[in-house]
Amino acid sequence: MCFSATASFGSATLLLVGGALCTAHAIKNDKTYLLLAITPILFALQQATEGVVWIGHNENLFTLTALSSILFLFFAFFFWLTWIPIVAYSLETKTWKRVFFIALIIIGFVFGLYLWIPVLLETGPRHLIQTDVCGHSLCYKVSGGGLLSVIARDIIYASLGVLFLLSSDRLFRKFWALVMLFGLITFFTQKETWVSTWCFFAAISTLWIYFLIINNHKSKTRKQVS
Fold first, then answer.
1. How many distinct structural domains can be found in the chain?
2. 133 is in which domain, residue-wise?
3. Radius of gyration, alpha carbons of the chain
4. What is the pLDDT of residues 203-212, one digit of tens each?
């Protein structure tokens, strides 16, 4: 997370427990939401990774800082652009929207590789220049350049996030609307550390999935009884 190693590992633990509860409930009561239910666990891995970034930075372990930063940005730049439309696809019931989300999966995969591969290779446009602390938060300084300008890249990234809201599943839309709201707030208030800060709040928002799934199951149960 954006404040300290302790906060990062603490949030990772909370997300791991919450994700385990979500997954157990989904397996027992409604496997339709299984992919959504394990999402907090995946966010826990990302938050733990940033905890390692903090350790590397604080101890001046440059190799550890670089490797853990690359792994953290794997989630931020690539993984979520692919995983979230996969989750949306798994919950979709309308045929045309299933085709639409398949297209978003492919677009997210290609665009995510475009963003992350230079970071992985540590060369070329958009490679990771430095991981530093800006204020009280981590900031990942990435070079500009490439086929797309920084503004174009940000517009595409944000647009993909908005398109995920076209899901027909109300539970998923509620969760993702909260994530996008946090993204908008952090972009205008913590722009320099936006990647780290938004990933933290997006991770914490996944805990809401548990309550959404529980309430959804209770609602279905009441309808069946009545």
1. 1
2. 5-225
3. 18
4. 777 778 888 8
